[in-house]
Design brief:
The chain is of the alpha+beta class and about 400 residues long. About 50% of the residues lie in helices and about 15% in strands. It contains ten helices and eight strands. α7 packs antiparallel against α8.
């Protein structure tokens, strides 16, 4: 078996590479209390545009990689022009060609892709104009277009999403990625390079299944990371060391983003399973059933984490209310303790002259009048403290609070 592959430094790593804009957005949000701007639909055509209108503002050409393989031979190459993939599509060898386009830029490149692969204008529009809802459409019985969303989370728990378009033909798979710097499909590439499993012995529909399965399975490490983040937030909320409203709000927003991504993808996989699709073989649908099970499991995890995050907010608000009640309790106790002291000091601070009447503060002439007043004040304080302690208002709770 012969193989020609890319140099190691040109291969893409599956490790998350955070975009500066995402990190800067989260940092700006940390420094201020202002809500961040919502992402605009920059790739959506103007209203009433003709069907198939492509909205591409960037002029930088996307990166294009071709993997052509069969049971014996695999060839992997980065091409500079779209036309360089034509020999792989028209040769006599019964191989499967995977053309991976990374990035959305240079309108002419995608128009030429549409001509080479005979992509329907509506399908090409969905592939380029992001974001689209995950779905699966059949065009003329020759192509199946699958729109999915990939997710990743970095070390700072910053969630990233990206659209992936998979066009499946008889002997080829064309993928278009929204971003050029990351994806979750490196494991599929490695399976093709090493020949692990049966992927090189099957058709293009099995390759499309492998890519879709990698996208769905890519949600598991993200949810695992968010689950650890929820556990950390639970500890911080219970300890109440800082204000937790913003981190909990960010978590709930990320979980909503995941829900909006995985929910339609579950319906997408179910449609590929149930509908009569000429491009999906019957044995491939058996594998799609496993992908559907994973999507259902992901939905259950997302819903569970959303309930936990809502519980975190309730716990945080309850803790804040309890702490406020404790503060008010302490202030009330202090006020009531010093209330008799203040009353005694106020009484003996009145300006009544003893010479005018024998009933005007006769204690002023007592030899021990001043020490007796102090003893009366201290006795009132000690008496109130003893009373509050017997009532259980100032003793420690079982948790040490």
């Amino acid at each position: 078996m012969t193989s020609s592959t890319l140099p190691p430094e040109s291969r893409r790593s599956s490790a998350p590479q955070p975009r500066a804009s995402w990190v800067q957005e989260r940092a700006d949000l940390d420094r201020t209390t202002l809500r961040p701007r919502r992402a605009r639909l920059v790739h959506e055509p103007p209203p009433a545009s003709p069907p198939g209108t492509l909205v591409i503002e960037e002029t930088q050409r996307p990166k294009i990689f071709v993997i052509d393989y069969d049971a014996e031979v695999v060839s992997e190459k980065e091409i500079q022009r779209v036309d360089e993939c034509i020999p792989y599509l028209t040769d006599d060898r019964p191989s499967i060609t995977w053309v991976d386009v990374r990035g959305l830029g240079h309108k002419g490149t995608f128009e030429r892709l549409g001509e080479i692969f005979r992509v329907h204008p509506l399908a090409l529009e969905d592939m380029v104009n992001v974001p689209q809802r995950p779905k699966a459409d059949v065009y003329g019985g020759e192509h199946v277009l699958i729109i999915a969303r990939m997710v990743q989370v970095n070390e700072r728990c910053v969630l990233r999403t990206e659209q992936l378009a998979i066009l499946v033909g008889k002997s080829f798979v064309l993928t278009v990625q929204e971003e050029a710097d990351w994806d979750v499909m490196e494991a599929v590439r490695e399976r093709i390079r090493t020949g692990r499993g049966s992927i090189r012995e099957r058709g293009a529909d099995y390759l499309a299944y492998a890519l879709l399965d990698a996208v769905v399975d890519g949600f598991f490490p993200v949810l695992e990371r968010l689950g650890e983040h929820i556990e950390d937030l639970e500890v911080e909320v219970i300890d109440a060391r800082r204000r937790m409203s913003k981190p909990i709000h960010d978590l709930k927003r990320d979980l909503l983003t995941l829900r909006r991504a995985i929910w339609p993808q579950r319906d997408l996989v179910n449609a590929l399973l149930r509908e009569d699709n000429p491009m999906i073989a019957k044995d491939t649908r058996l594998y799609l059933r496993d992908t559907y099970d994973h999507a259902v499991q992901l939905m259950d995890m997302v819903e569970t984490y959303r309930e936990l995050s809502s519980g975190l907010m309730d716990l945080h608000l309850s803790g804040m209310s309890n702490r406020m009640n404790e503060i008010m309790k302490v202030l009330t106790i202090i006020s009531t303790i010093f209330l008799p002291v203040t009353a005694i000091a106020g009484i003996y601070g009145m300006n009544f002259h003893h010479e005018s009447s024998p009933y005007n503060m006769p204690e002023l002439d007592w030899y021990y009048g001043y020490p007796l007043v102090w003893c009366l004040m201290l006795a009132s304080v000690v008496g109130l403290l003893t009373y509050y302690r017997r009532k259980g208002w100032i003793r420690k709770d079982n948790d040490g609070a």
